[in-house]
Design a protein that fits this description.
This protein is an alpha+beta fold. It has one domain: 2-Layer Sandwich (YaeB-like fold), CATH 3.30.2310. The chain has 3 helices and 5 strands. The chain has a 5-stranded mixed beta sheet with strand order 1-5-4-3-2. A hairpin with an 8-residue loop joins strand 2 and strand 3. The longest helix is centred in the first third of the chain and has 14 residues, at 24-37.
Length: 94
């Protein structure tokens, strides 16, 4: 199991996005739980990004909801971390 790290930017974007789409909150929370279990699961449709976002990965949590994140190792423990960077619509995050 990987550990989720929520950046301040992700937290603000999450609050803003859920405020405009409250029905998505449960789906987003389920997607985050699924990411902790297996970030490479096919239903998450995760993929690496290219161009100016190279090094960042994205996954889908609904028709027009994307989560941007990186996979990192904790420098001391070697624990796998999922660092959540942003969430929003396709146009918002790309």
């Amino acid at each position: 199991m990987r550990k989720l790290i929520l950046t301040p930017h992700f937290k603000r974007a999450f609050r803003r996005y859920v405020r405009h789409s409250p029905l998505l909150q449960e789906r987003i929370e389920q997607t985050l739980r699924d990411m902790e279990q297996d970030v490479l699961a096919a239903h998450l449709a995760q993929h690496p990004l290219t161009g100016k976002l190279q090094g960042i990965r994205a996954c889908s949590c609904g028709y027009d909801c994307r989560i941007l994140f990186t996979l990192e190792l904790h420098p001391l423990t070697g624990e796998e971390l999922i660092v959540l960077l942003n969430i929003g619509t396709h146009d918002d995050v790309y």
